[in-house]
UniProtKB/TrEMBL annotation:
Residues 281-477 form the Carbohydrate kinase FGGY C-terminal domain. Belongs to the FGGY kinase family. Residues 19-245 form the Carbohydrate kinase FGGY N-terminal domain. This is Sugar (Pentulose or hexulose) kinase. One of its GO terms (biological process) is D-xylose metabolic process. The keyword Lipoprotein does not apply. GO terms for molecular function: kinase activity.
Amino acid sequence: MTRRPDAIRDAIEQGRTSLGIELGSTRIKAVLVGPDHAPIASGGHDWENRLVDGHWTYSLDAVWAGLQDCFAALVADVEQRYGVRPDTFGAIGVSAMMHGYLAFDGDELLVPFRTWRDTTTEAAAGRLTDLFGYNIPLRWSVAHHYQAMLDDEPHVPRTTYLTTLAGYVHWRLTGRKVLGVGDASGMFPVDPATGQYDAGMLAKLDDLVAARTPAEPGARLADLLPEILPAGADAGALTPEGAALLDPSGTLRPGLPLCPPEGDAGTGMVATNAVKPRTGNISAGTSIFAMVVLEGALRRHHPELDLVTTPAGDLVAMVHCNNGASELGAWSEVFRELSAAVGGPSDADTVFEALFRAALDGDPDGGGLLAYNHLSGEPIVGLSEGRPMIVRTPDSRLTLANLMRTQIYGVFATLSLGMRVLADEGVAIDTMYGHGGLFRTAGVAQRMLAAAIGAPVGVGQAAGEGGAWGMAVLGAYLRSGAGRSLGDYLAAEVFADAAVDVVVPDAADVAGFTTYIERYTAGLAAERAAVDALGSVTSPQENAG
């Protein structure tokens, strides 16, 4: 298909498009792609989590208000560009931040949504890890559920269904209680041989629960979890009620197909063509995580690594850090305000790019500065809470360039510590692919990430579109991928002619980052002391709104 506006308009009117929607931590984004998988329109809605009664959460009202606003913005973009209002699509796919806890009794939400950002599940995660001999991170859904049991929360006996945010939205749109295998693998371990929840571990948990309290009807975890579907499977169709939820104007027609809902880790793999062994991707947003597709099982479990799957069900080692680019974004906003105050550019993108370009002139080791981006707890480095800090010695070189370089280093520092565990396991990586808004300024974050992980980093043209585009591609795979593996489909239909810029690690940057990470690791003692000294901190969002 050519990229002529009239050809695109025909595809929209004929429903030869795919819509991907992703509910990220700070932004809900929708991307519409044409038959050639290239984006043709987008929409967005900014939102933010709140700390309520000790749990990071979003209200379900905020979920639907955000989805409706995002969808309306997409429709407006289509109308502005092509003069037509879409009333159908070839497929829709929904993705969202993984893990967390949504517990229902029928249609009733029993406790407010608890997100991946919660670090209140340490006791449960530790016991389950020991029980399974398999790392269960704090943010996994099973850790939330078992912690609720340990805390004798009254909602537990009433629970009839557990799901993730993507699974919840898909359920409301289609009536189907299903989940893509990648997202499901962040609720409870999945056996790669079967593509289903690990039966042995389910049995161990049932025995543990039965020994603690008398078994109750519906208490078996297998009865509470969503049905697992691989990429390309039929996951239901948009119901009239679902269409009205997404588009209250009544224009959107029901009946169109939806692909299995996925997590943001899975859509990141798709968006970067990193679903085959020896490939991997790094997604940088509010959190930052690396996904490396494995050739085989690891020798032992590691607390720094999750084992999840691709949307096709292949085993993946995941290095997940709770804290990504939020602190960097806060500093960017400070400089935007300064620029506006002195009559300079006040748009965020211009300031962001200028700061990133300045970072290229910084000393390879950051000039002796250290930047800790921990707004919340960070299990990889043993932090139950976070205190963002900049630390320097009297002889450090405090310049704009060094400040910004260390802020970018700070985004990647904890990730690099987790990636070292994979290297020690002998895991081979040909190329890592970066995606997310952090990579929009060409050659900056990409270059520093290559130094941080000691591997080539590729960034494609769609890197800035992120997971919403990856979800749209999964919708297209539902429509036209029959008979081909997801990896083969991506290689032949989506990325065959894709331009990818690959940066190899620069020797001076590698040496500088090595010095930086040694100081950073030693300085974590100061970060822990700050947590102890400042005591519990109430978020300014606590009980807001």
